[in-house]
Amino acid sequence: MIDSHREQFVEVLSRIRGRDVASVSARVETELAELAVVADVDDDQLASVWDQLLEACIESTRDRTVVAWEEAALFGERAANSGQSLSESLNLVHGLRHLAMECLREQATADDIDEIFVIAGFNGIAETMSRALLDFSAGYFNAEIANQARLRSQQDEFVWSILTGSAEEVDAFNRLGAYGLDSAADYWAFRAQVGTNEDYADFEERLGLAGQGAGRRGVSAVTGGEVCGFAIAPPVTGGSGRIGVSGPVQISSLPSAFRRATRAFNAAKIAGIAGVQSLESLGIVASIMGDRDIADVTTATYLQPLRRLGEYGDTLLETVRCFIENDCQVDVTADALALHVNSVRYRLTKVESILGVSMRETKTLVEFWWVLQLPDGLTLAKS
């Protein structure tokens, strides 16, 4: 029964598409104009889309197959590129479907065509629109992905130009405003390694580096598995990751601040220290990690000979550590270790004999203190 009305359906849709039926023409023109205003699209473009939709419905009925609306994907791309939200865009497509069905119902009633014809027509339009919506959505999302990648690339390039000092001053200030940031504010530079339970998007969201407007706290670039950038406040926590951060500076001083943040990050990475770290929080560790050659030499001189003695060597090393931490006072060291002062003196003498140094010399004490600041993992690796 439905098949018997197929040619009628094609004929009526052709008349609606051509808008040569007075009872339908005014309705089509009026509703298309209203849809164009609501969706903020060109009248001629929307009229073209309307024709393509009905043509696809006609071809679908003739071939008894679902024919794609050829321009659906392209129309979706245009909607995304114009800044139109997906919900607004889909409402436009649904509006066209509703108009097509209402026009079909209206014309079928005027031509005194029975209900089964209308059902057949609705089925044809629904089938075509289902495919059209899929193609439209695919075009929209493809354009969104391309736009996000382009914006991300532009942001990364901008951030690196600021952090490396290659940005033009006027351009930098203008683009800061575009990201919702104040060019007169102080910023903390940072370099970070995202934790295992967090991706880049979550990390940037947590630090307030995503979005637009007043809620945005900074801007970042993702490169080589790291996130680098600057923000109006230092990160409070690094989560399970690692963040090297500078102090607050003006935009023009961010390159030197970023170098400090990078040095803190690299030192913490080598030392295996997680969380938010700065040169101030790392102290001497940053200097030690910054010159591994000296660390290797001092480790070989002061630690390796004692480590080779096993548990006894560890005991001697702990005595030296306690002695230095207590300002080289034997009696205080003895109290801290629950030993007799003569036992402390004996152990220090033993250390001097093994290492061939004098614990009375400032140079020995300084170098010994320096090497004892090395993280245990590094000192053991050299032993």
Layout of SSEs?
Layout: H1 6-18, H2 22-39, H3 43-63, H4 72-81, H5 86-110, H6 115-163, H7 169-178, E1 187-193, H8 200-206, E2 218-223, E3 226-231, E4 242-249, H9 254-271, E5 275-277, H10 279-282, H11 284-290, H12 292-307, H13 311-325, H14 330-337, H15 341-355, H16 362-372, H17 376-381
Parallel strand pairs: 4-5
Antiparallel strand pairs: 1-3, 1-4, 2-3
CATH topology of the largest domain: Globin-like
Average of per-residue pLDDT values: 81
Cα end-to-end separation? 91 Å
Which structural class matches the secondary elements? alpha+beta
Name the overall outline.
elongated
Number of domains: 3
Share in β-strands: 5-15%
Number of helices: 17
Strand order of the largest sheet: 2-3-1-4-5
- The strand count comes to 5
The level of helicity is 55-70%
Give the biggest beta sheet.
5 strands, mixed
Poorly predicted residue ranges: 377-383
Evaluate the radius of gyration.
37 Å
The arrangement of helices and strands along the chain is HHHHHHHEHEEEHEHHHHHHHH
Please tell me the CATH architecture of the largest domain by its name.
Orthogonal Bundle
What is the CATH class name of the largest domain? Mainly Alpha
Structure, explained:
The protein has 383 residues and is an alpha+beta fold. It folds into 3 domains: 3-146, Globin-like (Orthogonal Bundle), CATH 1.10.490; 173-282, no CATH class; 291-381, PucR C-terminal helix-turn-helix domain (Arc Repressor Mutant, subunit A), CATH 1.10.10.2840. It is 66% helix and 8% strand. A 5-stranded mixed beta sheet has the order 2-3-1-4-5. α9 (254-271) links the parallel β4 and β5. α2 (22-39) runs antiparallel to α5 (86-110), α9 (254-271) packs across α11 (284-290) and α12 packs across α16. 32% of the residues are buried. InterPro entries: CdaR-like_regulators (IPR051448), PucR_C-HTH_dom (IPR025736), PucR_C-HTH_sf (IPR042070). This is Helix-turn-helix domain-containing protein. It comes from Microbacterium lacus. Residues 316-373 form the PucR C-terminal helix-turn-helix domain.
